[in-house]
Amino acid sequence: MVLNVLFVDFYDSFTYNLVSLIRDQGQHVTIIHFDSYGEDIERFWKDLQCFDCIVLGPGPGNPENGFPDVGFMEQLFVRQVDLPVLGVCLGFQLMCKSVGCTIEQLPSIKHGQVYDVKLSSGAETAGSLFEGYPSSFKSVRYHSLHVNCKNSDVSRIVPLAFTDDEGGTVLMSVQVANKPWFGVQYHPESCCSELGGKLIENFLKITERHKQARVRASESSDLSTAQGVIRNLDQTIDKSSIYQKQDLQAQNIQIEEIPIEPCTLLALQICNLLTEPFFLMSSSTIHENRGEFSIIALPNERSTVYTHYDQVHRTLVHQWRDQRITLEGFASAAETGLSCDGVDIINQSKHEFWKTLGTFMQPKMMANNPDIPFIGGLVGVLGYEMGQFTVHDREGKLVPDAKMVYVENSVVVDYQKGVLMLISLNNKFPENARSAVMKIVQGSKPGTRLPQLPDGVEYDITMPTKESYVRAYNKSQSYLNKGDSYEVCLTTQTRVVPSKRIEPWRIFQTLICRNPAPFSSFFEFTDIKPGHSDLCLLSTSPERFLKWDADTCELRPIKGTVKKDGNTTRELATKILKTPKEFGENLMILDLIRNDLYELLDVVTVDELMSVEEYATVYQLVSVVKGHGLRQAPYSGIDLLQHSLPPGSMTGAPKRKTVELLHDEIEKELNSHISPTSARGVYSGVTGYMSCNDRGDWSVNIRCMFSYDNARTWRLGAGGAVTVLSTLEGEWQEMLTKLESALQVFQN
Ligand SMILES: C=C(O[C@@H]1C=C(C(=O)O)C=C[C@H]1O)C(=O)O
Ligand SMILES: NC(=O)CC[C@H](N)C(=O)O
What we know:
Layout: E1 4-9, H1 15-24, E2 28-33, H2 41-47, E3 53-56, H3 67-70, H4 75-78, E4 85-88, H5 90-98, E5 102-119, E6 136-148, E7 157-165, E8 168-176, E9 181-184, H6 196-216, H7 223-233, E10 254-259, H8 266-273, E11 279-282, E12 293-298, E13 304-309, E14 314-319, H9 327-336, E15 344-347, H10 350-361, E16 377-382, E17 402-407, E18 409-414, E19 419-424, H11 431-442, E20 459-462, H12 466-482, E21 487-498, H13 504-514, E22 519-524, E23 536-541, E24 544-548, E25 553-555, E26 558-563, H14 570-577, H15 580-598, E27 603-614, E28 618-628, H16 637-644, E29 652-653, H17 655-670, E30 686-691, E31 695-700, E32 704-707, E33 714-722, H18 728-743
Parallel strand pairs: 1-2, 1-3, 3-4, 4-9
Antiparallel strand pairs: 5-6, 5-7, 7-8, 8-9, 10-19, 11-12, 11-22, 12-18, 13-14, 13-17, 14-15, 16-17, 16-30, 18-19, 20-21, 21-29, 21-33, 22-23, 23-32, 24-25, 24-31, 25-28, 26-28, 27-28, 30-31
Helix pairs in contact: 1-15, 8-11, 12-17
The protein binds the ligand C=C(O[C@@H]1C=C(C(=O)O)C=C[C@H]1O)C(=O)O and glutamine (GLN).
The site of glutamine has 11 residues, from strand 6.
């Protein structure tokens, strides 16, 4: 008998981790938001007849705030719903409040910390929520608030578990007396919690028994009506796929392999000799599993270019350097939506923009699957505001939020195999590019002279004041304390104006030598006119956002940073990175990313838990999460990409609420010297490709600089995760360290 579980989501970023635990038990889960019914409690009550139990999930906010934070969900208990209920964290607090407990500030807030949960005596008896549990087990806590039942009617509450921390004993689980209503304060669904699946299994057994009793009393509802209701209810996420997968045909690819001596300057040297435009996604450090490749993408007049402006909900489509288009014509088409020779104008939201990209790519996907990450496809940059929950408010200057270019010719260097490949999808690998490659491959070893920026240029650098940073930091702390957020990725932006324009390529070469990184990128979009770009990104990112192939995907969130200086050995860094502060920071984002994947996929694994990685200026704590079974799913990599942007490591958790707080409150004043709308722009977005052999790889836009005005001014973002364990000085210094990784090129 499959149970129908109603899951009430309070817009949390751990919802689907819990949902997956229930689905693993073979049960059907319907997810609604706590405010899906608005104020229509009667309709909600009627629909409840279709379900066998209710799970009230975790989430931001405080049940004491009432309707804005929890809707009318407390009424479940006030009206005495005749269904088993499991409340988790916020849901638990809500249930306890409804029976007279108070919700109070936790003396020592815990976000992403593992504690021993101890059962009250008798809690593990047969038929209970903790049947078969040991007397103590480890679980993760994410809460600012806790339940105080000292002044409540003790006959209504059966405490089941507690934990000890610095603030004394904290209630971890209760049952409401004589009711099948249970709750846990801890998070059974975290990847660092023990026995989470068992808790759900036990709750479902309780549900099963309850259901049987109801069936006997013939209270059960008509199954066919139930199915209709259920189908229409579950609308919290858009589950449609961007494009339908089809049977793929083999298509023509020309690949010429040339053996090479692996050297990460190779791609740079080839680009130096190229006479045509190029984009570079390059590794400047070779590691197993990241940075094994450099890709030089060669756009030409056959290349279609997509530019999306979220501020005006418009996409412009044109061919690379179409002679009919002028810079002024293009800018005015973007601004007004009025037609312009050579440009297709589509008025569409960013959501529809993804579909436009998908529709374009679908017929280009091919059955050939050479073991090469990129054979040709869309390459480009997606800004932070292309993600979910973000908005790009209208401000003075219209800037692109996304630019993607379809590229048929490329050079791919595989450092591990020691081969370079010239790849063409149109049988016409450009001769000039071939001779540039041959010159470098056959020539003498590349020199080691470090490129320098030209002498005699002054740099006007504007960064946020420490005072405004302090205010933003304090705001972040106050939201963390109130339980509105568990982690806030607070970011700053700095503007650099050189007294003379310097070629982006020259800056990039300096940057990549000073701050080598596995995901460096050079994207100067000169798609209208040579020597002119409306978007330019120079990045030395250490962080992979998302990589996929036809069946699996991988995310590598970085959270936890230690500056390298003369005294920091790897050993010391590891010690610092394994403290509760860094552990919690990383775990929260790891759990958030599992959630992002579980929204679309059934199987998600944690393949590396908090490894320490070394970079030029910092040590970082990195986890690796994989999603499996894409082949059987209706989704492709592009669905995962759309779905999981913006990167959780750049937002904090829970994602939706924290993105909102950052935009409306926290970063507004802090970055007002750059933009009045607190848009992050390219920073915090992603850069990469989707290849016609169904592979993709995207890095997070950090340790980078970008320009919207043809390299006259540059913007650099830097930030870090603020948690309750942060210190103001520590975060300020961490931000400066990250800023320095790119800013250093302008400082001598
Ligand atoms: C925000 C930045 O980096 C992010 C924040 C990190 C952290 O808080 O430790 C680490 C890597 C990135 O996910 C940045 O580099 O500007
Ligand atoms: N994870 C949660 O559900 C948190 C609940 C509540 N907002 C708190 O901070 O205590």
